[in-house]
Design brief:
Structural class: mainly alpha
CATH superfamily: lambda repressor-like DNA-binding domains
Radius of gyration: 13 Å
Oligomer: single chain
CATH class: Mainly Alpha
Number of helices: 5
Length: 88
């Protein structure tokens, strides 16, 4: 599975919300049905996650789907800009 960029905004947003939530990885795992080891990797930008997975995690840590989606969109635009820059 491909990694997300460790400097991406989405993992940072999720990790910050997770830390503020006071929840344990096990609690989030129960809510999302996503293994705590995968959650940790997503929070640290070490594992790619679909937008559906990111929103599910976001909701578990107190974020709205719109907050997660907006950040995800910024990450994708940055990826596209970097790819285009390689060719121009």
């Amino acid at each position: 599975m491909k990694d997300m960029d460790k400097d991406s905004l989405t993992p940072k947003l999720l990790k910050t919300a997770y830390e503020k939530s006071g929840k344990t990885l096990k609690e989030i795992e129960r809510e999302t049905e996503i293994a705590d080891s995968s959650l940790s990797k997503v929070f640290n930008g070490k594992q790619y996650a679909s937008i559906t997975m990111l929103v599910k995690i976001g909701e578990a840590v107190g974020l709205t789907p719109k907050q997660v989606a907006n950040t995800y969109k910024k990450d994708k635009i940055s990826e596209i800009d970097a790819e285009i820059a390689e060719f121009v």
